[in-house]
Amino acid sequence: MEALRLKQKKAKKNEKDESKIFEEDITSEINHGIRVSNLAYHVAKRLGLYEDQCHELAVAGMVHDIGKLRVSGYLYGRDKDTLAIEEMKYVRMHSRLGYEILMRYDYSDYIVESILHHHENYDGSGYPENLVGDEISLSAKILRVCDVYVALISDRPYRKAFDKKTAIALMIEEVKNFDMRVFLAFQSVIHEEELEELWEDQAVVVGIVESEED
Description:
- This protein is mainly α.
- It is built from nine helices and no strands.
């Protein structure tokens, strides 16, 4: 009887630990999505896109990493090897998984194709299709720049957030990954102080609430 009680207690603890990790992961992704969404909208606006395109890019920014939830067990470690885990093949699956998920719902081709290609690099070194230059849609190029910047200025389990100046310097070192017209528009936007709070860390917190049984 005592062994059974201890087993049940351990199972309950594991369940709580898993719930806590899930809450942290969802909270992190939602906050990341909000910041990318806000930034993508303003970069698109700076590039002169129509308002409906800017709005669709904001939606795409919000859900661009939804595919990560399908592979979260591989991506969200809580140990020192997290960086190595994120570099594994599983991370390269998330943009296609996100595309497949959103194709089942009423999202436009503009949004789902932006999400599919938001990890393509201008020089062809990205994924999932190794597209080069103008083979990549303008919307995906915008998401790419915004996603990288927000990731750099965010805390990660394996490192602290970089300050804005350092983040930009790191992106300039890898500028071959970006469309230069998009990158210049992005730099113009992030230096506008009145907009800066839109891609600062957000305060959204997600919690799991247990339903009461009748």
